[in-house]
Design a protein that fits this description.
Blueprint (H helix, E strand, L loop, with lengths): L7 E3 L4 H8 L5 E3 L5 H6 L7 E4 L9 E4 L2 E5 L4 H6 L1 H6 L1 H8 L4 H6 L2 H5 L12 H6 L28 H7 L3 E6 L2 E6 L19 E8 L4 E9 L10 E9 L5 E9 L6 E2 L13 H14 L10 H19 L1
Parallel strand pairs: 1-3, 2-3
Antiparallel strand pairs: 4-5, 5-8, 6-7, 6-8, 9-10, 10-11, 11-12
Helix pairs in contact: 10-11
C-alpha cells in the first residue's frame, strides 16, 4: 500500500480566501484529487498545504456570456458531459469529458483538474521504489531520459482528454491569484518541457474556461485510443474543429493531437480548406495528414509506431460519426 506524505488541508468558503492560501510557498490546490493524490503517493512532490476547492460553488457555473461559452473550472467532468449548453455549443468537449477514465472518476474530477493534469511517462508514473531501481529520470531525481537517452529534455506526455479539444475550439483560460487576473490562450498555457509543462504562476488558480461561440456552421469531434475503453489514459488522442459554409465546404480547420509530448501538437491541415467535409476523399486526406505529422515517442505504454498508424483511423471514424 502506498501512503500519502504528511500535509495540512484548508477548506475555504470564498475564492479570495483560497487565493490567499495558495500564495503560501508550496501550497497546492485540490478539487477532485484524482491526479494529485496518486502523485503524492508516488512521492512526485511533498506540498506542505493542500487548499480544497470543494466549497467554491462560484467555480462550478456553466453559462453563455455574450459570444462566449463560460465554464467554471470546478465543473465536474460528469456534469460537463451532460450539460445541454456544452453539448449544443461544444459537443466535442462533452464527448471528451464523457470518455475520461470511469464514472466514479468523472464524478470527482473537474475541468480545471484535467487542464492542469501532470504529464505522464512509463518510466516515472511508478512507485518511488520502482523509480529508484532505474536511477530515476529527468522528471524524478535522475539525470537521464530513458525514452531519449541522449536527450536533455523530459518528454513526458500530456494525457488530458479535454486539452486538445479546448485548443481546437480556440479556448482561453482565466487565471487568478492575489496579484490579479490574466487570460491565457489555451495552447500558450503549455510548454514542451515535461517537467515544467505549465505556464501557471506561483499561487495562481485556473478559474474559468472561455470558448468563443461559432458564428456559423461548425463540426467538431474528439477521438481517443487506449488499450481499455475505460479507466486508462489515452495513448493517442485527436481533436478536430471545422467551420463550414452552407454547402459543407471547409472554411477553417483546427486539428490537435495529444499524448505526443508535454503539449498538444497542432496538425497542419491547410489542404483541407475549400473541400467538402463529408467527402470520403477529404476524410482520407485528413487521415493521411495525421499519419505524416503525428510522431509518437515511446513515452507511454504501447508501440509508438502503432499509435501513429491508428490516430488517423480514429480521427476519420470520429468525424464521420459527427457529420
Amino acid at each position: 500500500m502506498l501512503r500519502l506524505p504528511r500535509f495540512s488541508v484548508e477548506v475555504p468558503d470564498r475564492l479570495d480566501d483560497a487565493l490567499a492560501l495558495l500564495a503560501a510557498d508550496g501550497a497546492r490546490a485540490i478539487a477532485g484529487g484524482t491526479d494529485i493524490l496518486p502523485n503524492l503517493k508516488h512521492r512526485f512532490e511533498r506540498p506542505p498545504l493542500l487548499v480544497s476547492l470543494a466549497r467554491l460553488d462560484e467555480l462550478a457555473s456553466v453559462r453563455v456570456d455574450g459570444d462566449v461559452l463560460a465554464l467554471g473550472a470546478g465543473v465536474t467532468l460528469s456534469d460537463l458531459a451532460a450539460n445541454d449548453l456544452v453539448n449544443t455549443h461544444a459537443p466535442s468537449l462533452a464527448r471528451a469529458a464523457s470518455l475520461v477514465a470511469s464514472p466514479l472518476i468523472r464524478n470527482m474530477g473537474t475541468l480545471g483538474g484535467n487542464i492542469n493534469l501532470d504529464t505522464r511517462c512509463r518510466y516515472v508514473n511508478q512507485s518511488e521504489f520502482w523509480r529508484s531501481a532505474i536511477g530515476g529520470c529527468l522528471k524524478s531525481t535522475g539525470d537521464v531520459c530513458h525514452v531519449v537517452p541522449k536527450g536533455k529534455n523530459c518528454v513526458a506526455a500530456m494525457s488530458a482528454d479535454t486539452v486538445p479539444v479546448l485548443c481546437s475550439l480556440g479556448a482561453s483560460l482565466v487565471q487568478r491569484s492575489t496579484a490579479g487576473e490574466r487570460v491565457v490562450a489555451m495552447p500558450d498555457y503549455y510548454r514542451t518541457d515535461g517537467i515544467f509543462h505549465l505556464v501557471r504562476k506561483p499561487g495562481e488558480l485556473t478559474c474559468e474556461v472561455r470558448i468563443p461561440l461559432a458564428a456559423g456552421r461548425r463540426r467538431s469531434a474528439y477521438a481517443k485510443w487506449a488499450v481499455r475503453a475505460s479507466i486508462d489514459f489515452p495513448l493517442i488522442s485527436v481533436a478536430m474543429c471545422f467551420d463550414v459554409d452552407d454547402l459543407g465546404d471547409v472554411e477553417t480547420a483546427e486539428v490537435w493531437v495529444g499524448v505526443l509530448a508535454a503539449r498538444p501538437k497542432r496538425i497542419k491541415v491547410d489542404r483541407l480548406l475549400g473541400r467538402r467535409l463529408n467527402n470520403p476523399q477529404t476524410l482520407e486526406l485528413l487521415s493521411e495528414l495525421l499519419g505524416r505529422q503525428a510522431k509518437p515517442l515511446a513515452n507511454v505504454p504501447y508501440d509508438a509506431a502503432y499509435r501513429r498508424k491508428v490516430v488517423g483511423v480514429f480521427a476519420r471514424r470520429a468525424l464521420e460519426a459527427s457529420l
